[in-house]
Amino acid sequence: MAVGDVTMPHMHVVQGVKIGSAEAYVRYPNRRDLVIFELAEGSHVAGVFTQSAFAAAPVILSKQHLAENAARYLIINTGNANAATGETGLINAGAICAALAQLAGVKENQILPFSTGVIGEQLPVERVLQGIQPALDQLKHDGWVEAATGIMTTDTTPKGASEQFELDGVTYSMTGISKGAGMVRPNMATMLSFVATDAPLSHALVQKLLASTVEHSFNRITIDGDTSTNDSCVFAATGQAGGQPVSTEDDHRYAKIQNVLARIMNRLAQLIVRDGEGATKFITVAVEGGENTQECCDVAYSIAQSPLIKTAVFASDPNWGRIVMAIGKAGVPQLDHSRVQVWLDEVQICRDGGAAEDYTEEAGARVMAQPEMTIRVDLGRGEAKDTVYTCDFSYDYVRINADYRS
Description:
The chain contains eleven helices and 15 strands. The chain is of the alpha+beta class and 406 residues long. α1 (57-68) packs across α2, α5 crosses α6 (252-274) and α7 (293-304) crosses α9.
């Protein structure tokens, strides 16, 4: 069960985007598992993808198609990742693009394919092909919620974020969905996310906005430290709501769009953590006082990915020695542990490298028992800081992953 508020908001229609979904029976019966996005002609589309050396066939093809042509359609299946499937996997991904292109009247390289699910099994391509026309028949402007459900795997809830904003008297919408609950530790993590706006952005700015906001949202979360083969995040700007194009960062409208996108991306990323497989607690790991951002992130991830810390949080056990262990193994060069401070929320547990004199186990346990908490670390070395979001490890995490292919 997801932690905290994971309510699906009102999903504002984005002009120039239609979405359809269907039951293709890729793996499971009686559930939506195929989603198609139709983007208006002239839309600018950008993507960031997994850095895994075992990148899935649809990732390879989507990157190739994005470099060749303007994307008009996205097609996503769940239940099968089409990863580690060799040349056959690429052929199958290509066949899906070809079939959709023919039905939609566009070129094959204007189709971006995405898959999520079990790795190492060949995609039942015929089932996907049979689902394309039914999904196209369902294309509509308000299909966001159904799409969020249609891309789920082990997720327990659909994930969405949406805002309306005004630029020079024109009202625009930005709406997005994501999926992911396990195998999550980006460099892009199994997660997918699709965000669109009807604001008029140039292609160069779409890619720049996506890269910058992903870095501080999806690239700051972890469930289990495992980077998927299929991670993909797409941002599309249709320009269909009118107004003068935003083509430079100096444009006064750029900063507002960036802020909206950052909020959308952060919400979608944190929803993935809140719905982590078996999660019962949402944990913010904030590291400050570093010489640079990299060492802050190294420490934050060392804490966030430690099974010993995550299981202690699940048990509400304030075993703070595990936290300093994780700090010590993070590889910060010449770290002076006598300058390190650690807090659980506002309760200081470690002062100058040792136990805080006024710390009590009861105070630490009270924080650990909360559904949401912050582990804050000050390295005492400089002014840099960064934040990573994670969740605990419960018995259910093992059960879910032990039964994943059942």
